[in-house]
Amino acid sequence: DIQMTQSPSTLSASVGDRVTITCRASQSADNWLAWHQQKLGGAPKLLIYKASTLQSGVPSRFSGSGSGTEFTLTISSLQPDDFATYYCQQYKLYPYTFGQGTKLEIK
Amino acid sequence: QVQLVESGGGVVQPGGSLRLSCAASGFTFSRYSMHWVRQAPGKGLEWVAFIRYDGTDKYYADSVRGRFTISRDNSRNALFLQMSSLRPEDSAMYFCAKDDDGHRGIEYWGQGTLVTVSP
């Protein structure tokens, strides 16, 4: 199985900050990597697929990069609506696997 | 717009069974593969099972293989998860999710249905 490891687990930041979350895969996922956002008590929502392609309707302040075993999600200028938990997920191989999540908190 | 509505969750004793359903609308259900993903209280996301759009392929997480069965009824736009030999560690919110059968992977998620396995 491909193990996904995110860092940090928790990130405290302020509105307007630029933040980056890292996701590492235990073996190459090529660019079959997605980022999902989950707000408290809600369903996840796809933000980015194929490592760097923004899902329709997602604000352009979100961006993704990387390939192989190292990936990043960047939010260029945090907005109040962005405080949530973010998960990376590989979909190169079954079983699909998720990172443990990064909780983005208001500083 | 895509809508996925799960149902069938509840409280069940260890060793018991439960059948989850997911009603799909807003897209041509028979053309898309589907997943179940779960989330234990306060924990992260865990992929559970996949079924191809026509039902020909099914994959399971090791933690549920042999106990859970994923199925679908394309005539009713419905996805199912039959769960048996339930354990306390199966307690979670269960999400139904649509695959895009292309480059996006898991594209849309339902709101989930809660399963609690407890004596």
The secondary-structure class of chain B comes to mainly beta
* Whole-number mean pLDDT of chain B: 97
* Count of helix runs of chain B: 0
How is the main sheet of chain A built? 7 strands, mixed
Sequence of secondary-structure elements of chain B: EEEEEEEEEEE
Q: Any idea what the radius of gyration of chain A is?
A: 13 Å
Quick overview:
Chain A is mostly beta strands and 107 residues long. Helix content of chain A is 0%, strand content 50%. In chain A, the strands form 2 sheets. In chain A, strands 2, 4, 5, 6, 9, 10 and 11 form a 7-stranded mixed β-sheet that branches. In chain A, strands 1-3-8-7 form a 4-stranded antiparallel β-sheet, with no helix packed on it.
Structure characterization notes:
The complex is a heterodimer of chains A (107) and B (119). The model of chain A has no long low-confidence stretch (mean pLDDT 97). Chain A is 0% helix and 50% strand. Chain A has 107 residues and is mainly β. Chain A is globular, with a radius of gyration of 13 Å. Chain B is mainly β. Chain B has no helices and 11 strands. Chain B has strands spanning 3-7, 10-12, 18-25, 34-39, 45-51, 58-60, 68-73, 78-83, 92-99, 106-109, 113-117. In chain B, strands 2, 4, 5, 6, 9, 10 and 11 form a 7-stranded mixed beta sheet that branches. Chain B has a 4-stranded antiparallel beta sheet with strand order 1-3-8-7, with no helix packed on it. Chain B is globular. Chain A binds chain B through residues 32, 34, 36, 38, 42-46, 49-50, 53, 55, 87, 89, 91, 94-101, and chain B through 35, 37, 44-47, 50, 59-62, 95, 103-112.
